[in-house]
């Protein structure tokens, strides 16, 4: 069959048929530019569609700029929209071409049709060419006074675009003052919302350079404006309501009655179908009641039902967003959600990210009353065909076991996982069993009996193999084949590519050698020789260290590598309390979903006025190590969790506690020529041991004592009203976070919390608010410097059930935070709390 004639072939509007296609379009547009024939607008539409489609797929049609502008002389709104789209796209790339559009855009800004006026003004402000800002001021001023609300709405956003192009031009034209007046007096709610959004952004940007701008920004939080917006809130769109609620969350009411009035006014917003609006309302409730502990707990109860409703309805994406915020609340108040654990069971048709978050929530709310049901459900997931969910469920069971007191049934379930003969189940379980044995060594006999039947050849994952090797070394005296399994692994050293496994193998063979020397000597020699020749620096250094240690003294080597161990009481939290508090302050934002504060994933110019430093090390003030006084009977606590937070060396989001030293004993490191002599000295003098090892590793630490911290004097008659305290608490960042152990005497003393308040007042630390009930007490303290008006704010949460005290300190003078924390802890110690 003959091919059809060329004229009958139809070319796609998105694919030019030849090199002359753009030239043809140009000639056709030129012919239609001045035509007034009937149906000319339809012809223009077809040509405009072709131009836009070419532009969309990346074909350069900028040569048609003049013809497109000439064809824009029409009253057809559709043609206007396409022409504005074309102009806006090429004006950014070719500013010179943008000059051709000024006349017709300014003319359209005066058109009789308000839709065309608005579209033209939007396009004119979207050109974003610095040389053309002078042509934008006049149309924007006219647009702000336009009788049509759509034009005014576009003009308000145009002011913000002008500010980002040339802030000086925007401020000289006094547009912020015009917007402020328009926000208060305009009858259209969308115009009011746009004014509010624009003013917030302008004053926030200007606030860092101008004190007047800072006052204007704070004026947005005045009571008349807040009440004006709240009284009209139902008239606004959902987006605008969220914007208003975000502003209300920063407002500091004058008293409790005002707080209750605002909450009663917004009560019905909790029942809204829009999830964003519900979350914004919840943020207002949480922020307003932050210092009212009892009411704050009631807010948790009130918001629970709306959140659970949003989770069960809507798309998976909405469920995940709501679950993320619910997870944040669960972490702060797990007891309030413990009875609703069934809402967090996984559904078969849910995506992985939702299931994973639900498993984390089940882990957080598990307690003595619901552990059995939750663990039973998680064990069902462990046999799931979805391997990632099976892994996560096993980890969840392990986390629950590590936070419960009665773990008999949980340990039995974990040991049953080892009999499922699934590689990934065995691997995850081995890692958890290792952590369980570190916390519950009394279960070693039952666990080792099962673990001993597992062949190392069947374990391929590095973390699982490392856990198995750790158990072989730690309990080699109870496992008959442990030396021979380790010897087999040492002989196949080159087949193991994971540095983590090699490091564990070296340590395990050292431990096994001290317990069963004849059977382990050969394997240890093989491992040390291979380790010293290893290309990985950590493996090489550890093997060399063990080799020199053994050459020096066997008994000392045993004390270093295999000392008596205490059970781990608490495992490190991957997130510091400062990070968690910052995420809570940024409730209803991406920070909750990312589980990190905004300063970690936003550019500096988009951060708030109280952003943290880029480096987490700046979150806390580094303490003076040499000035820490430690009593002789407290030496066993130097590395315990009770010191966590007292000396804060934050590193990668967690707090690292360095051992404290008695400053009354001079520390000196002798400059000997032998590494072994340094090691021998370190055995007899514990205070110089750390310095000796640091010197051995070439850290070159100075032994000169650091200067003592300056003394801090507090004002015994300090005064601070609750409103100021609440405002400062919201604005100031956390300077220090402390977590201390509470003594039995301190637990008994809290039967009358007023005694603690009176005692702290005697130390010039005053209590401004209290809350909670046994076993959880919350106190808010404040203190002031005697020589200047500088405040210290403290939130102290004491749990008599766990014998823990958690404190957050905020200060006007960040440099004095460490000195004040020392005074605060000393005052608690005198009361017998610590």
UniProtKB/TrEMBL annotation:
<dbReference type="GO" id="GO:0012505">
    <property type="term" value="C:endomembrane system"/>
</dbReference>
<dbReference type="InterPro" id="IPR012295">
    <property type="entry name" value="TBP_dom_sf"/>
</dbReference>
<dbReference type="Pfam" id="PF01602">
    <property type="entry name" value="Adaptin_N"/>
</dbReference>
<dbReference type="InterPro" id="IPR016342">
    <property type="entry name" value="AP_complex_bsu_1_2_4"/>
</dbReference>
<dbReference type="GO" id="GO:0016192">
    <property type="term" value="P:vesicle-mediated transport"/>
</dbReference>
<feature type="region of interest" description="Disordered">
    <location>
        <begin position="1"/>
        <end position="41"/>
    </location>
</feature>
<keyword id="KW-0653">Protein transport</keyword>
<keyword id="KW-0813">Transport</keyword>
<feature type="compositionally biased region" description="Low complexity">
    <location>
        <begin position="7"/>
        <end position="17"/>
    </location>
</feature>
<dbReference type="Pfam" id="PF09066">
    <property type="entry name" value="B2-adapt-app_C"/>
</dbReference>
<dbReference type="InterPro" id="IPR016024">
    <property type="entry name" value="ARM-type_fold"/>
</dbReference>
<feature type="domain" description="Beta-adaptin appendage C-terminal subdomain">
    <location>
        <begin position="712"/>
        <end position="829"/>
    </location>
</feature>
<protein>
    <recommendedName>
        <fullName>Beta-adaptin-like protein</fullName>
    </recommendedName>
</protein>
<dbReference type="GO" id="GO:0030131">
    <property type="term" value="C:clathrin adaptor complex"/>
</dbReference>
<comment type="function">
    <text>Subunit of clathrin-associated adaptor protein complex that plays a role in protein sorting in the late-Golgi/trans-Golgi network (TGN) and/or endosomes. The AP complexes mediate both the recruitment of clathrin to membranes and the recognition of sorting signals within the cytosolic tails of transmembrane cargo molecules.</text>
</comment>
<dbReference type="InterPro" id="IPR015151">
    <property type="entry name" value="B-adaptin_app_sub_C"/>
</dbReference>
<dbReference type="GO" id="GO:0006886">
    <property type="term" value="P:intracellular protein transport"/>
</dbReference>
<comment type="similarity">
    <text>Belongs to the adaptor complexes large subunit family.</text>
</comment>
<dbReference type="GO" id="GO:0030276">
    <property type="term" value="F:clathrin binding"/>
</dbReference>
<dbReference type="InterPro" id="IPR002553">
    <property type="entry name" value="Clathrin/coatomer_adapt-like_N"/>
</dbReference>
<dbReference type="InterPro" id="IPR026739">
    <property type="entry name" value="AP_beta"/>
</dbReference>
<dbReference type="InterPro" id="IPR011989">
    <property type="entry name" value="ARM-like"/>
</dbReference>
<keyword id="KW-0472">Membrane</keyword>
<comment type="subunit">
    <text>Adaptor protein complexes are heterotetramers composed of two large adaptins (beta-type subunit and alpha-type or delta-type or epsilon-type or gamma-type subunit), a medium adaptin (mu-type subunit) and a small adaptin (sigma-type subunit).</text>
</comment>
């Amino acid at each position: 069959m003959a091919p059809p004639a060329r004229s009958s072939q139809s070319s796609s509007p998105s694919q030019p048929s030849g090199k002359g296609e753009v030239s043809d379009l140009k000639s056709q547009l030129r012919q239609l530019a001045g035509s007034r024939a009937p149906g000319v607008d339809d012809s223009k539409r077809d040509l405009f569609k072709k131009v836009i489609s070419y532009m969309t797929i990346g074909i350069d049609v900028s040569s048609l700029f003049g013809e497109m502008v000439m064809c824009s002389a029409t009253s057809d709104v559709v043609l206007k929209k396409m022409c504005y789209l074309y102009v806006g796209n090429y004006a950014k790339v070719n500013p010179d071409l943008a000059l051709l559009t000024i006349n017709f855009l300014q003319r359209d800004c005066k058109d009789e049709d308000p839709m065309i006026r608005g579209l033209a003004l939007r396009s004119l402000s979207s050109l974003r060419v610095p040389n053309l800002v002078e042509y934008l001021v006049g149309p924007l001023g006219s647009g702000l006074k336009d009788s049509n609300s759509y034009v005014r709405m576009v003009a308000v956003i145009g002011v913000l675009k002008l500010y980002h192009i040339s802030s000086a031009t925007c401020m000289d034209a006094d547009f912020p003052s015009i917007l402020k007046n328009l926000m208060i007096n305009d009858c259209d709610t969308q115009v009011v919302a746009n004014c509010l959004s624009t003013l917030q952004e302008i004053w926030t940007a200007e606030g860092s350079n101008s004190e007047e701008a800072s006052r204007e920004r704070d004026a947005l939080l005045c009571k008349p404006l807040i009440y004006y917006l709240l009284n009209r809130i139902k008239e606004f769109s959902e987006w605008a309501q969220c914007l208003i609620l975000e502003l209300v969350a920063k407002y500091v009411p004058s008293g409790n009655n005002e707080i209750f009035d605002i909450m009663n006014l917004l009560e019905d917003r909790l029942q809204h179908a829009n999830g964003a609006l519900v979350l914004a309302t919840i943020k207002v409730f949480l922020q307003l009641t932050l210092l009212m502990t009892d009411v704050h707990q009631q807010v948790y109860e009130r918001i629970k039902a709306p959140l659970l409703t949003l989770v069960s309805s809507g798309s998976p994406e909405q469920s995940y967003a709501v679950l993320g915020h619910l997870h944040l609340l669960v972490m702060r108040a797990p007891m309030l959600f413990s009875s609703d654990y069934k809402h967090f069971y996984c559904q078969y048709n849910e995506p992985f990210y939702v299931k994973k978050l639900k498993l984390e929530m089940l882990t957080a709310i598990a307690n003595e009353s619901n552990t059995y049901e939750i663990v039973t459900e998680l064990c069902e997931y462990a046999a799931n065909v979805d391997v990632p969910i099976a892994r996560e469920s096993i980890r969840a069971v392990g986390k629950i076991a590590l936070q419960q007191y009665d773990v008999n049934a949980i340990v039995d379930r974990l040991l049953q996982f080892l009999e499922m003969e699934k590689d990934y189940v065995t691997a995850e379980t081995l890692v958890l069993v290792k952590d369980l044995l570190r916390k519950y060594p009394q279960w070693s006999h039952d666990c080792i009996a099962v673990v001993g039947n597992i062949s190392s050849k069947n374990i391929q994952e590095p973390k699982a193999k490392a856990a198995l090797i750790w158990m072989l070394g730690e309990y080699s005296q109870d496992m008959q084949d442990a030396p021979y399994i380790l010897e087999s692994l040492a002989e196949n050293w080159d087949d193991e590519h994971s540095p983590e496994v090699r490091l564990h193998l070296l340590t395990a063979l050292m431990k096994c050698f001290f317990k069963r020397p004849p059977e382990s000597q050969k394997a240890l020699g093989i491992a040390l020789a291979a380790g010293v020749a290893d290309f990985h620096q950590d493996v090489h250094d550890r093997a060399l260290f063990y080799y020199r240690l053994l050459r020096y003294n066997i008994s000392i080597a045993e004390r270093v590598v295999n000392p008596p161990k205490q059970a781990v009481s608490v495992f490190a939290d991957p997130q510091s309390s400062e990070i968690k508090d910052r995420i809570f302050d940024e409730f209803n934002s991406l920070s909750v979903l990312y589980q990190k504060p905004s300063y970690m994933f936003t550019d500096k110019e988009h951060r708030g006025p109280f952003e943290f430093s880029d480096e987490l090390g700046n979150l806390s003030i580094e303490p003076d190590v040499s000035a820490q006084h430690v009593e002789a009977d407290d030496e066993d606590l130097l590395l315990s969790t009770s010191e966590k937070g007292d000396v804060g060396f934050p590193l990668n989001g967690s707090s690292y506690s360095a051992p404290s030293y008695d400053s009354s004993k001079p520390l000196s490191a002798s400059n000997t020529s032998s590494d072994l002599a340094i090691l021998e000295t370190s055995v007899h003098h514990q205070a110089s041991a750390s310095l000796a090892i640091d010197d051995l590793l070439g850290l070159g630490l100075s032994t000169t004592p650091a200067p003592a911290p300056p003394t801090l004097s507090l004002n015994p008659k300090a005064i601070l009203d609750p409103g100021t305290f609440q405002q400062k608490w919201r604005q100031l960042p956390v300077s220090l976070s402390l977590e201390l152990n509470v003594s039995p005497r301190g637990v008994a003393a809290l039967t009358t919390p007023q005694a603690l308040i009176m005692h702290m007042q005697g130390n010039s630390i005053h209590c401004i608010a209290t809350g909670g009930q046994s076993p959880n007490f919350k106190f808010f303290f404040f203190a002031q410097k005697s020589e200047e008006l500088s405040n210290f704010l403290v939130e102290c949460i004491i749990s008599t059930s766990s014998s823990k005290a958690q404190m957050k300190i905020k200060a006007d003078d960040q440099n004095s935070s460490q000195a004040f924390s020392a005074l605060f802890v000393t005052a608690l110690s005198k009361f017998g709390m610590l």
